[in-house]
Amino acid sequence: MTMMEPRKHGDASDGTVGGRQSRFEGSMKVTGTATYALEYPFENLAYAVLIQSTIPAGRVLKVDISDALAMPGVLLVLTPEDDLGLKLGADWGGNKPAEGPYYPLPREVQFNGQSIAAVVAESREQATEAAGLVRVTYEESKYVANLNDPNAGEGKLMDALSSAWGDAKAALAASPVRIEAEYSTPREYHVAMEPHGLTAKWDGEQLTIWEPSQWSHGMARMYSEWFDMPYENVRIISPFIGGGFGSKGQPLAYGAVAVAAARKLGRPVKLAVTRPQNFTSYGGRAGTKQQIALGATEDGILQAIVHRGASETSVYADWPEQTGAATSILYKVENFSSQHRIVPVNSVTPGALRGPGKNPSAYGIECAIEELAYKLGMDPLELRLKNYADHDYQSGKPWSTRQLREALTKGAEAFGWSRRSHAPRSMRDGKTLIGWGIGCGTFPVIRAPSEAMIRILSSGKVEVISGAIDMGQGTYTILAQSAAEVFGIPVDQVEVHLGDSRLPGSAIAGGSMLAGSIMGAVHKAAVAARDELIGLALSDANSPFRDTGANTLNFVEGRIAAPRGEAPSLTLAELMFALKREEIEVRRNTLPEGASAQEQVQAWTTMAKVQGPTMGDYSMHSWCAHFAEVRVDEDFGTVRVSRMVSAFDCGRLYNPRLVESQWRGGIIMGIGQALLEEGLVDMRNGRTVNNNVGDYLVPTNSDIPDLQVISVGVPDHNASALGGKGVGEVGIVGVAPAIANAVFHATGKRIRDLPITLEKLL
Ligand code: MCN
Ligand code: MOS
Predict the structure, then answer these.
(1) In a domain, 225, yes or no
(2) Are residues 631 and 754 in the same domain?
(3) 585 is catalytic
(4) What is the pLDDT of residues 401-417, one digit of tens each?
(5) Chain-centre distance of CA 203, in angstroms?
(6) Catalytic one among 366, 485, 677, 729?
(7) Strands, E, within 103-142: which ranges?
(8) Which of 6, 90, 366, 725 could bridge across to 737 with cysteines, CB 3.0–4.6 Å?
(9) Closest residue by CA, ligand 2 atom 4
(10) pTM of the model
């Protein structure tokens, strides 16, 4: 077990892979020198403001813009009347739909809060004022507000997301002990600190967009398709992002509006999506419902799992929030059946939010497993260990690595689980009920190709160059560590340049796939650059190493030396000087040898080359076990999470300090999900009521206790070149059920619909 105790900062080993280097860009962020997308200054800038629909479904009959146009400073009003001349773009997989126009400001209203018009003016204040004067006449039609609307149908069965083996129904019926329950989760939102928005600027045929992005290359591709222009002519600049959590992976309608307005006006246009507009400009996590039935023997051997889940989607696109995603792989079970349906409602299409699918799925199965434990009168830890899956029962494949048993046992030890008394309401501190609960989590290892460039400069600096994104996860830092290690130099001798679609191609900062992918590419490029330098140093007439007879060189502690000290050692700068080289530049990718230029672009701009967790001989996932303690006020029903211990298997950690921060960030979001977060929909008009950070509650510091995190992972070289598995999302998965289970243990009340608010406990 590696206990993540805070350690003295500044050890030399911190700058290599596995070290606890603190954030490369941290001081820039805290001193305000990290420039975010909407902070760049422009000459002649115009400001666009969105107008969103106020009905849930229908048609825009008329938009009266005369008063708005008469306002000072107003330059342009765009409405569904304007054909912006856009074309449909391909989906994430790069699949083209039938040819057709794309209307970012459509006449058909499909949800309340849909962008239907925009005003552009000399200032944001003028645009906002004028937007208030635009009068829209609608023809309203029938709508479905959300998953709980009586008019919501039963939806569409997603065959690809359903799975079955054995005979689950028969095995359930034959099981001596059974539980059956329904769990639900509400709409949840990303609420990143940095709201969405962009500045778009045309220079002739060249388009540059400053926009927070999780995927510079994928976004550039989509804009190029909408505006029917060569991919090379679009550039996305996004070096710093104030959080994305899944919401910034693709361009959205407002982006098309700003770019089209900039083209029409021949001026740069900035569009800042307001905080309320953020709630409907892209989708948060879909509301879900799931029924779970478990059957077991009297001594707690799981016999069957039957799972039926549903999630809401929009009326115009399918987004499944796959409620069965974790159900199928957490436990050993010979009889299994899971189905998932999607139910169209009048909402913006939901999207990926940290741990999509796995998150609500773990909420269901991890609550259900504890319900079974109480029915059996068995310790929930023992029940989990008893039904430990020795391989992946769904794919039939062996795990590449799965330290979930270690996570459960080490986590339990650190938490003090053995001191638990089993009966609900049996642990208290005066009037405060104390409860303990467990929730396991998982997230797949998703693999994708990436590309990177290394430049060794005459100054002795090494540059790492990639279009990859750092939205706070730590990409800058781990890439600096990787290059520093290969060249044996201090980490501050490395400069990392990221966040620009003109730079070498990269996997998305999403699906917890970026670190594994881009570390592989940077390591490969750095080793190739070092080899090139060694080659020159051993052969160049100007090199002091030429006549040493050595066949390689060592790079240690900032110096380059022949293995047996055959010549004096040099720094990188001294060697570059001796070789009379300005720079050495090497570019490498992790695609199969000989991939064509076209395949390369496809790899960085679509998901076509992305591999799921069971593509190959193994089933590969990150794992975790959360142990939560809650304190519930017996009279008021208020719940506080007073302590959490979480143990993780994410393979090798490139930087434990950053990983701990990722895990804690996920856990904090999980605490919010358990106790606070709920997108409220007005059933009378489909409107998101609490569309602001005053009413949509996320945790603050005072809601968060000490979070102890423990790594139990071992390097997994099937998962990635350097042995790491995904880190960014697994932390949120399993937190909400751990808390719900702890609340049950404290109070004897089982809350099956999130969030667990006090009125549900009274
Ligand atoms: N890491 C590591 N060792 C590993 C894997 C990762 O040290 N074996 C560390 C690195 O610091 C790396 C980070 O963890 O930068 C995340 O790596 P990875 O799990 O590969 O995830 P991605 O880089 O693909 O980041 C995306 C992921 C996702 S999908 C969401 S959602 C999320 C998350 O990261 N959104 C975030 N973490 C976030 N963190 C911040 N601050 N802001 C967000 O919006
Ligand atoms: Mo993460 S939800 O895959 O960006």
Answers:
(1) no
(2) yes
(3) no
(4) 999 999 999 999 999 99
(5) 33
(6) 729
(7) 108-109, 115-121, 135-140
(8) 366
(9) 246
(10) 0.97
